[in-house]
Amino acid sequence: MLLYVGISPKAPPTNGRAPSRQTIRSRIRNHYRGNAEGSALRLTLGCLLADQLDLRLRRVGSGTRMTFGPDGERRLAEWMADHASVVWVVSASPWEIEHEAIRSLVLPLNLDQNRDSHFHGQLSALRAEQKTRARTLPID
């Protein structure tokens, strides 16, 4: 079993900007029904499962966004529905729980705050390779 930790909202900005209005509900919806451009988890899973699910990261729209295309995103959503589970904890400061979880647990799918993970370099390289390949392909 692999774990991934995500939070919502993120820590309040210290530069005077308004805090994030994102909710845990919208975050989970993005992970399950969104696309690789809007979900680091979907991007990571799609890159890891690319061969198994026949997924190819592609540039879409204006060419700056990248997704697995409608069919690929659908296959990834189906895989997640069959293999992924979500649990959540309510907290007034979820960024503190996230930091502690990443510090104390083995969370190879988390890249942010997790540079000491043995898998960080491999996963970062895989995602970068997929993005580089997508940039060489025509825009869908």
From TrEMBL:
Residues 2-129 form the GIY-YIG catalytic domain. It holds the Pfam family GIY_YIG_2. It comes from the Bacteria. This is GIY-YIG catalytic domain-containing protein. It comes from Paractinoplanes lichenicola.
